[in-house]
Structures are given as C-alpha cells and as structure tokens.
Amino acid sequence: MTTATTTTTKTANTTVEAPVPPAKMQKPEPGRISTLTRTEEVKLKLMWSYLLVEQGIAPESLCEDAREASQKLAKTTTNTSSGSDKKKKSGGGLFGFGKKKSDAEATEEVAEATINAARKKYRDAVKNYDAEALNRALFQMYRADHPDNLVLRFLRARKWDVAEAMSMLGETVAWRLEFDVESLTYKGEERVKQEGQDGLMLQFRSKKCYTYGHDKKARPIVHVRPRFHDPKAQSEEDVQKFTVFTIENARLCLQDPVDTAAVIFDLSDFSLSNMDYAAVKFIIKCFENHYPESLGFILIHKAPWIFQGIWNIIKNWIDPVVAAKISFTKNFEDMNQFIEAKYIPKELGGQREYEYEYEEPVEGENELQQDEETRKNLEDQRLDIGKRFQQAVIDWIQSPDLETSDKMQQKKNELAEEFKNNYWKYDPYGRARGILDRTGQIKYFQGF
C-alpha cells in the first residue's frame, strides 16, 4: 500500500498517528464522476432534470431537454467513457432495458413513462414538505460531497433505474427532515450532556462503537463491539440517534475518491444478553435506505456458535448487494487480508497501540456557533454556490454536443470544489464538535 507524508496531531489525551490515509492515491471505482460511461452520464442527467424540476428550480422543458440529450446519445454512442475516447461496454439500454432493441428505440418508447414515474415517486415521497425546506435539506445533505456523487449513490443503489433512485432520494430527504438530522448534529454531544440525556451519552461512553484507522483502500474503519451493549440500558431512540451520529461523523472522514467506509463487528465475548434486534434493524435500514453505497465491506469477526441462529434471522433482512459485502473472519490472518496490521488492535492479533477512550466535550469547544453573523454569511455563500451549481447542471443537460457537455462537467467539478471548501469553513459554525474532532480523526482523514 502506498504511503503519504507523515504528520502528527495531538489532542488532550490522544496522539493521532501518521501517515494521513492516501485517499488521493486511490483509483476511483466505476460509476463515479470520472469513470462514468456515456450511458451512465445520461442517467445522471435525467435524474438531475427530474430533481430540479420537482424542486421548482428549472422549467418543465428541462425534462424534455434531458430526453433529447439521451436520444442524441443513443444515435451516436453509449459506450464512450465520460471525458475519454476509450470505448467501454455497457449493459442494457439507456433506461435499463435489454439489448433486443436499439438504445434509440428503447429511449423513444419509454422516455415519457420514465419521466412521469420518476417524478411521481419523488413527489409522493416528499409531499409533506415545501420546496424551500427540501432545497435546504439537500444542501445540508451534501456536506462536503460533490453533489453529483451524492446523486450517483442513489443511482448505483437502484441499478441505474432513475425512477427508483428518485423515490429512494425523496424518501431519504423526507426521513432526514423527520428525524431532524441537522438539529442533532448542530447540537452535538455537548448539548446532549448539558440536557442530561444520559441514555444517549451512555452510547458514547460505553466504547461500543468508534472510528479509527483505515483499511488497505484508505476507507475509515468503524469498529463496533456488541459486548459493550446492554439493550436495556437505554431507549431505542437513544440507540437510533447514536447510530445517526456515528454515520454522519464517519461521512466527514471520507475524502474523494474514497467514498465508502469499512465496518468491523467484533464479536469477541459476545453473548445473547448483548443482542438487540431493533438496533440491528435500524442500522440495516439506515445503510440500505438512507446512506446507500456507503459501505466498502463489513467484517463479522470471531462470531461465536450462538451467533449462528441470530445470523439466520438477520440475513433475511439484508439486501443481497449489502450481503455480498459481508465477510466472516476468525483470526488475525483473515482480517489482515482487508486491513494492515498497524490498524488491527493488539487484542485481535494486530500491532495497533491505540485504545479508544471517550473524551468528554470540552467547555467552549462550540463557541463559534454563537457567531450567528459569520454562520449566516457562510450559509448565504453556500446557497449562492449551490444555485450556481444548479445552473451549471442545467447548462450541462442542455449541452448540444459531447464536447460542450464535458466542458460543463468540468465547470460543475470546479463549483463542487468551491462548495466543499465552503463547507469546511462553515463546519465549526454549523456542526457541534464531536469525539472525532477531539481525537483528531476528521483532521487525520481530511489531511488538514
């Protein structure tokens, strides 16, 4: 594995080791912005057109523009990789149909039905919220991501079926508003502690879950240790909030082109008294429905014999795509196939010296949140960048040829980088500091 420049970050109780994970040295996987086939690019244009029209940002005609773009592409090429002259094979037609009909025939036949189905599915999912709330929720949901990457997660998760991807995205936006994810991350651990939410604070203090280290592909590792979980010690709501806290914070450790995390379920000393089916169901729901394409792999390590019966129940809840990412490991050698020894805990046979200890919120760590003027200015900047990005998307969809389309994609990429930089300026004003800030993990993974 390649290495990066070494740095050392010190916090109150922790020294974060170097090197910074070499995310930039990793190759982007298929279905990402730089690796899209032309057919996949059309799917992305179609989905953006439906989304912008449904959000009230673009006129109805944009859907027709996207349809015409797909028809033009069908008559020229569906096999050229975006931004490249290299030919690639792609399965099915532009709308996911088989090879019996040409792409042009399939496009003409189903385009109208696809547009209507996709838009209706999204509309039904978000019917309880107005356009302003939905736009704000989307901007918040992007965080430091390239907006294209976020949309592509939903397309890949639904096998490039635009209607199903629109439905999934709509349901996720509605869920985030209902669960009030942004309020949760804005208040953070300090407010949880101040408000005396002992059940939720117990989750952090219990050492049942933490993020540290990375696998051989620079994915951050989320360590889950069920032996520290007592299903009766807190409410189901506390477990759900902690799960969302963990996922949202882990997202901040991702750096393009690394866009997935690794999860280890360490079942050492696990017993039936630790089993919590409700918590497992919620975790599965989150990853499958609301954080799609976020898992690189899951290792279920040292599962005892009693887990066999539990697994026979749980596996029926898991989507086959997610199930394919699960591996059972028994010893250091098994785990070492995925993770370097220096990131495997000593108790599991590795070389890692780091031992997780929860660091309590530090008084004053969120004082920047009191600067409402700066926060508002950064939010306004974010809104401006977002609007310019949306206009660039419209121009990209309406591009008259592939060369213009590629130029507009580059403009989108530049605005997405501006969007990302804005987020990291905004972050300390809009998100409370958490354990990954106090231990230096976010800085470690982002290379700050």
Q: What is the overall pLDDT average?
A: 88
Number of distinct beta strands = 7
Q: Quick one: biggest sheet? A: 5 strands, mixed
Please provide the ordered H/E string of secondary-structure elements.
Answer: EEHHHHHHHHEEHEHEHHEHHHHH
Total discrete domains = 2
Spell out the blueprint of helices and strands.
Blueprint: E1 9-10, E2 15-16, H1 38-54, H2 61-76, H3 103-125, H4 131-142, H5 147-157, H6 162-179, H7 181-194, H8 198-205, E3 209-214, E4 220-224, H9 236-251, E5 261-266, H10 277-290, E6 295-301, H11 307-314, H12 320-323, E7 326-329, H13 332-336, H14 372-397, H15 402-430, H16 435-438, H17 441-446
Parallel strand pairs: 4-5, 5-6, 6-7
Antiparallel strand pairs: 1-2, 3-4
Pfam family, one: CRAL_TRIO
Region (Disordered): 1-31
Domain CRAL-TRIO: 197-356
Keywords:
about 450 residues, alpha/beta, Phosphatidylinositol Transfer Protein Sec14p, 2 domains, 5-stranded mixed beta sheet, two-stranded antiparallel sheet, 7 strands, globular, disordered N terminus
Overview of the structural elements:
- The protein has 448 residues and is an alpha/beta fold.
- The protein folds into two domains: 173 residues, no CATH class; 155 residues, CRAL-TRIO lipid binding domain (Phosphatidylinositol Transfer Protein Sec14p, 3-Layer(aba) Sandwich), CATH 3.40.525.10.
- Helices cover 52% and strands 7% of the residues.
- The chain has a five-stranded mixed β-sheet. The chain has a two-stranded antiparallel sheet with strand order 1-2.
- The longest helix is centred in the C-terminal third of the chain and has 29 residues.
